[in-house]
Design brief:
By secondary structure, the chain is α/β, with parallel strands linked by helices. Helix content is 43%, strand content 13%. Helix 4 (64-76) runs parallel beside helix 6 (106-119). Catalyzes the synthesis of 5,6-dihydrouridine (D), a modified base found in the D-loop of most tRNAs, via the reduction of the C5-C6 double bond in target uridines. Specifically modifies U20 and U20a in tRNAs.
């Protein structure tokens, strides 16, 4: 079980919340481009809390030597895996000649993987789509996986939709191209020695279990973010862990402790962290008011612990007016 890399969402604060909920799920960074690491603030992009392990760094790029250098940085900073993004369809990523468009150049991807494998001792993995645009022939993705596997990649995370490089936004690319889980299952049959995980559209334990019966792993994206409490079941249901009797209140308090540490150590405002836990009480009475308090910009100057106290206060119910 893993939580997908999601741009602007799975930052280190989000991952800290997810780790509180699941001890064993693999967590991924949002995509970090090679340019950001080669020319930007490395610490800002790579710093994470030791509690996040196991955690993987996802890189975006297409130059083998740049990727090798950034993979080495990832290993030096302590990441447990280096993942290459071959699935993002955004136009900005396409202009950089990486992401999903790399699937059209499997030998280049193989060269990138080989450079990274030679540079680090941690696993190098690839996340990819099952096709490009309206092309749905299985041979395309089969040959891509086969070529990249020869370069030393042993783990493939298959986003079970095509990536339409023209005409759809990144959001539409997560919803409009149809899910084809059978493609991932066929890849596992054709490459039984490889680890094949699947990503795309998972919202229930039953759907996860169905895929784990035939594949090696399931990656969950948006549902894990919007409904993070789901992760509290993953260790016992899917990962062989023990029930830790978690409570939403306990998780909220642990996040407030973390907010206070981050404020002292790095000057991080609590609201930059709280935004990731707004789905924690989804489906419970009072969840809407709780979210409103934690996202109220008028409370930004208050300490996080006082905001938590306000969020937990029951609203005053006025008696009905007599007529």
């Amino acid at each position: 079980m893993s939580v997908a890399p999601m741009l602007d969402w799975t930052d280190r604060h989000c991952r800290y919340l997810h780790r509180l909920l699941s001890h064993h799920a693999l967590l991924y960074t949002e995509m970090v481009t090679t340019g950001a690491l080669l020319h930007g603030d490395v610490a800002r992009h790579l710093r994470f809390d030791a509690a996040e392990h196991p955690v993987a760094l996802q890189l975006g790029g297409s130059e083998p030597q740049d990727l090798a250098h950034c993979a080495r940085l990832g290993q030096q900073w302590g990441y447990d895996e280096i993942n290459l993004n071959c699935g993002c369809p955004s136009e900005r990523v396409q202009r950089g000649a990486f992401g999903a468009c790399l699937m059209n150049e499997p030998q280049l991807v193989a060269d990138c993987v080989k450079a990274m494998v030679d540079a680090v001792s941690v696993p190098v993995t690839v996340k990819h789509r099952i096709g490009i645009d309206q092309r749905e022939d299985y041979g395309f993705v089969r040959d891509f996986v086969g070529t990249v596997a020869e370069a030393g990649c042993r783990v493939f995370i298959v986003h079970a939709r095509n990536a339409w490089l023209k005409g759809l936004s990144p959001k539409e690319n997560r919803e409009i191209p149809p899910l084809r889980y059978a493609v991932a299952a066929q890849l596992k049959r054709d490459f039984p020695h490889l680890t094949i995980a699947i990503n795309g559209g998972f919202q229930t334990d039953a759907a996860v279990q169905e895929q784990l019966a035939v594949l090696d792993g399931v990656m969950v994206g948006r549902e894990a973010y919007h409904n993070p409490w789901w992760l509290a079941r993953w260790d016992t249901l899917h990962l062989g862990g023990v029930d830790r009797a978690l409570t939403r209140e306990g998780i909220e308090e642990a996040m407030v402790d973390y907010m206070e540490r981050e404020a002292r150590s790095h000057g991080t405002p609590w609201y930059a962290i709280a935004r990731h836990m707004l789905g924690l009480r989804n489906g419970l009475p009072g969840a809407r008011r709780w979210r409103q308090v934690w996202s109220d910009h008028r409370l930004k100057q208050l300490p996080a612990r006082e905001v938590m106290a306000q969020a937990r206060r029951q609203p005053v119910v006025k008696p009905p007016t007599e007529i």
